[in-house]
Amino acid sequence: MAFTTDASEVSVRIENVRNDKGFVFASVCRSEEFLKTRCLYSSRIEAKAPSVVVSFESVRSGSYAIQVFHDENDDGDLNLNSMGLPSEGYGFSNNVQRPRYRDAEVDIGEGGASFGIRLRYP
Domains along the chain? Predict the structure, then answer.
């Protein structure tokens, strides 16, 4: 993956936030960071139903995947149930259901980008 020195703003509209509890976390991730706790670009915003917008400044052009989750209990983690599946709302770029980088991959160019992600709740 090649990066250039240019940097752009990325806006992510997160829809289907079911309540105002906790925070919504969003991350713009390189392939090696995808599904990890920390990515190069990460942010959180107070949850507000039905949607929130998270903006990232100075994102370098390149290929990324965006991952989001609604941390309703404000513990800083995406909680999982006994089967290892999310018990809080989550979503990925391209609104893919299965968290595979190649399916969620998006390109961010010099002009920036805007994306919409719909949260899924178990």
Answer: 9-118 (2.60.40)
Gyration radius of the chain over CA positions: 14
pLDDT digits (tens, 9 = 90+) for 49-82: 999 999 999 999 999 999 999 999 999 999 999 9
Cα gap 15→53, rounded to integer Å = 9
Write out the DSSP string of the chain.
----S-EEEEEEEEE----SSSEEEEEEE-TTTTTSS--SEEEEEE--SSEEEEEEEEEESEEEEEEEEEETT-SSS--B-TTS-BSS-EEEGGG-SS--HHHHEEEEBTTBEEEEEE-B--
